[in-house]
Amino acid sequence: MLVLLGVGLRLKPQEIPSPLIGKRAPEITLPQVEDGRGLFRSSDMRGKVWVLNVWASWCGPCRAEHPALLELSRLAVAPVVGLNYNDQRGDSLQWLREVGNPYNVSAFDGDGKAGIEFGVYGVPETFVIDKQGLIRLKLTGPVTQEIVKDKLLPLIRELDHG
Amino acid sequence: MVKRWWLLLLLFFAAAASAAQDAAQLERRVNHVAEQLRCLVCQNQSIADSHAQLALDLKREARLQLSQGRSEQEVIDFMVQRYGDFVLYRPPFKAITMVLWLGPFVVLAAGSTALLYNLRRRELREDALEEV
Amino acid sequence: MIPELGNFALMIALCLALVQGSLPLLGAWRDKPHWIALARPAAAGQVSFVVFAFGCLLAAFVNNDFSVAYVASNSNSMLPLHYRVAALWGGHEGSLLLWVLILSVWTAAVARFSRQLPPVFVARVLGVMAWISVGFLLFMLFTSNPFDRLLPAARDGRDLNPLLQDFGMIIHPPLLYMGYVGFSVAFAFAIAALLGGELNAAWARWSRPWTLVAWAFLTLGIFMGSFWAYYELGWGGWWFWDAVENASFMPWLVGTALIHSLAVTEKRGSFKNWTVLLAIVAFSLSLLGTFLVRSGVLTSVHAFATDPRRGLFILAFLAVVIGGSLALYAWRAPTVGMGERFALFSRESLLLLNNVLLLTAAATILLGTLYPLFLDALDLGKISVGAPYFETVFVPLLLPVLLLMAASPFVAWRRDAWRDVASRLSKIAQISVLFGLALWLGWKFTPAVAAGLMLAAWILLGCAQHVLERLSAVGEGVTLARHVTKQPLSYWGMLAAHAGVALFVVGVTLVKGGEVSEDASLRVGESVVSNGWRYSFTALQKVDGPNYVAARATFEVHGPDGRVLTLQPEKRYYTVQQMPMTEAAIDRGFTRDVYLSLGEPGKDGAWLVRMQNKPFMGWVWGGCLVIAAGGLLSASDRRYRSYVKRKEDETIHTAAERLRTVAGIAGRGPAA
């Protein structure tokens, strides 16, 4: 039992693994945060490797991870799609103006329904989805430069070649 | 003419009453489902008890699905598909949780049997000694 | 300056503890009276320096010394004085210092109140306690020093978590620690007995009061935690089977088995191995609880700031203590000797069964608490184990215990005929069953509630019958009053504790079976009816507290019997930590609690309100208090206060036993 507890020290009990890894990403159709820009359909992303980042204007850690996301989008290795979760349009637009917009497109999920489809339980969360539309990675918590470098970029590159 | 009005009124009240009944029935079912799902952002609460945003969202989703005719089990399966076994407030009864569910009773049975056996054997042994 | 003195004092305390731990034990082993005599003075020294160190940290808090990192992260200049004191144990480092302080308190008590024990034995006990102290002091000095400075000093502190700014915080941890740490005394007694190879009824008599007092404190500590959560957390729950709650409940269960086992060892000389093992397990579970809370291994509302390095240290400490003591047990237990004989149906057997049941219960809770970790570590997925599991599994385990509780006092020591006991108890058994059936079929209670109340009645009737039988066996020329006072306090203690359990069962059964909770959205001036009570939202005002702002709602609540209550739940916003908090309004009654709490305000000015009605909630609290009182009553029994060496008593006792055995009289044992 003591060995078990020792191993337990290295685990993170707050993190809940996603059962959706390896499964098809849910088909969502949402309006965009910027009004009048048409709808975002996740099926449109088929054939590309893409990153989905769940964010909200009321979320502190989202602000902390923003520089890393801006960097990721600057590298342009994969489209970065934002999922604006449980938010108000006005606040979201204001926020994007303030901190910058790393997203190729930002879907507006005002009531959180799309989030539930993705198994979102907190913000921020980040998903990597492959060309066939399967979810390959889910990260909970803010993305750091290290995570971009060590986890996201290699995976995206690998999926691109696959 | 009056009779028609009466009938309409009666039907209206009946509908309202049954709607209220239905609403209460729906709430009961929502609650029943909510009690079985864990609030993922709280400490040890079901989504029935919690007022957290996620809990309210999930309850709303459950209510929507139940009112659309899904069964309680289907709603729970929906949640488990997206959030994993962790969202079940009551651990599932599967192969890997067999030890969890049956363990206590096995231990109890084993312990009591061992005790009984030991005491009986002691009693017999001491009786034998006494007869000497 | 003062924090440095405190730090230094801890280091000196460590040195003294090392002395206290090594020389007396070596002296006891090698029969060196001078070293044995060092135990008490070394202990006195260690205690003084720990108290001094505690005083230094206390001074830092009271004086708002924010150059000490721990004070800065747990206190604030706007915090009222009594909470500044309580903040001392609000975080990891400080709570460790509290642990060590309470260990010192117990050490001092053992040193002071052990004049009648042989010095060699006392030396061993103090020696073992010293090693526990060494472990915690090392832990503090190397990984979690409360005196670490923060340079440059913070302008103001980060404030104590608003959830902790409550009376409960002032007494819950100290009470709990008095219990946890108190089991270290029982542990030390057990180890000392194993080391010395003498384990007899006298040892049990010495051990018992200490264990009873520790157990009573643990009961109060757990009660206080629940009581506090009930009014503080705002949603009416009071037991969540949270990892830390379980961590305190497991030692309590094993502690209960221990005090029963000690009773048998004291009276009959039996169960020695069991008793020693239970003492080791109880304390090990206390330490395990300490580990679980501080290592980040489990999620819990109680979890302190987690640091795997600290977890590793405690784990190592756990391994040493548990491994060492069990190894010692395996080595020395056989020499401790078998107990006296007893039949398959006897009070001894039933108490042994009681031990098995309570240990199974504790093991079950351990299983449930660690299972998610177990699966996660083996990469078998993540599940969550919560209240539904524990309630499903724990209640059936407890049923036999409750049944036995009423019946066992009627069973004779050594040997009895179950038919005789059954016929003695048949009347109250019938009354209880009829009561249960009446509740179920007549008053339409659910079978579960009826069963719970039936068991409670069974226990209470059993206590009553036992008392009546005992008191009616009055001899010639003795008045009833005299006879009552002649009964030892430990008898009344037992009755009180068992009755307390019955009261607790009544409370839990009725609350779980009958509580009603409803949510509603209300604006000022509106009202709603829930469960026969009318809740009218009459006023809303803004209130300024010392370190918070609050919205206070006033409700007039009309009961079905015409009573009108005024309840004022609050939603507080603590300015420093920017944390919202719910203060529930509770009207406590003998037969029900009315519980009202505010949720979030909606955008339209309507507040989400939760209204709850909890039948017989007060009996849960009352039951716990009566249980603790029973423990303390038993501990104050006169025979524990004797300062005379009791060796001769023991010889007389065993000689009398032998006479009785020889003469073949299967008599009832001495008075319970």
Brief descriptors of the model:
heterotrimer; A: 162 residues; alpha/beta; five-stranded mixed sheet; two-stranded antiparallel ribbon; 5 helices; 7 strands; 35% helix; B: 132 residues; mainly alpha; 71% helix
Short summary of the structure?
The complex is a heterotrimer of chains A (162), B (132) and C (672). Chain A has five helices and seven strands, in the order H-E-E-E-H-E-H-E-H-E-E-H.
Can you describe what's shown?
The complex is a heterotrimer of chains A (162), B (132) and C (672). By secondary structure, chain A is α/β, with parallel strands linked by helices. Chain A has helices at residues 2-8, 60-75, 89-99, 113-117, 145-161, and strands at 29-31, 39-41, 50-55, 80-85, 105-109, 125-129, 135-140. Chain A has a five-stranded mixed β-sheet. A two-stranded antiparallel sheet of chain A has the order 1-2. Chain A is globular. With 132 residues, chain B is mainly α. The longest helix of chain B is centred in the last third of the chain and has 34 residues, at 98-131. The N and C termini of chain C lie far apart (57 Å). In chain C, β3 and β4 (548-558) form a beta hairpin. Helices cover 64% and strands 11% of the residues of chain C. Chain C is α+β, with helices and mostly antiparallel strands and 672 residues long. Chain C has helices at 2-30, 33-37, 39-62, 69-74, 81-86, 92-112, 119-143, 167-196, 201-232, 243-268, 272-294, 308-336, 347-377, 387-407, 418-442, 447-472, 480-486, 489-514, 617-635, 647-663, and strands at 516-522, 527-530, 533-544, 548-558, 564-567, 570-574, 579-583, 585-588, 592-601, 607-615. Chain C contains 20 helices and ten strands. The B-C interface holds B 36, 38, 43-46, 49-51, 84-92, 96-97, 99-101, 103-105, 107-108, 111-112, 115-116, 119-120, 122-123, 126 and C 235, 237, 240-242, 299-301, 341, 343-344, 349, 352-353, 356-357, 359-360, 363-364, 367-368, 371, 375, 380-389, 392-393, 396-397, 599-600, 608.
